[in-house]
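Quick illustration, no need to memorize.
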Amino acid sequence: MFNWFYVNNIWIMRLNIIIVWYNEEPNIPKLLKHLEYLKSKIDCRIIYVDQESIDNSVDLMKKWWAEVYIRQNKWYADPDKKWAVEELCKDGEWCFILDCDEEFNNHLADTICWIMEDNEDGKCYSVLRKTEFLWKNVAEARQLRFFKKGAVILTLDVHNYINPADDVIHVYLKEYIDEIDLKLKWQWVRFLINKNNNYSDKELDKIWNISTLKVIILMIWMPILWFFWWWIVHKNFIRWWAWIIHCTLQAQYQFWIYAKMYEKIKTQKYKKH
């Protein structure tokens, strides 16, 4: 029963909140404000993994009594989230993955506490994550964020690094978190372009043994499919210019992946000559 610890003759349940990010100084105060309510309900261990920030993120988290760890900046957070769960949490402990640019309401905090008090094994939990762009909600997606260590499989994949383990029931909570990058409200477009450029580099590792012809076909069709997928599935047609810009940038993300793959194939080919 590792998810409890013993203090003053009382067993107390603890939640590991794992936060991994880079240069989050403007976002941290609001994040901590949202965590205050959760901390008032249940004992929380804040694990902050910093990717070599050059602002005051580390000092702010230390002032809030967070455990701070410095890791090499990989330009995406998934590997360090995996590391934090596997290396810093014990088997059977509750873990909650959170980003600094996310907000959650008290209803989600209450639900987390209720699940922990029920202490039912064999389940992991997804929450609805709403993404804001240019002051509009442009996407909603279920993400597995709340689980006991051992109930999930963590990978290094971009966007899909947590999956339920065998025989574990995946529960979808109705509560949600908002992705709102507070420090970049005046440069959302630039931020998404930089983010997609970095992520497209990481996506190359997932593409193996693919022909040049197939890369060209995917480079043409995937941006088109993604544009309309974001347009229809996420109902972005009702958001006017916010959806046009967001869908176009997401389509561009797919184009970059296969354009870089084409470059990689050609580079390897000419290196042999």
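Residues 241-271 form the longest helix (31 residues).
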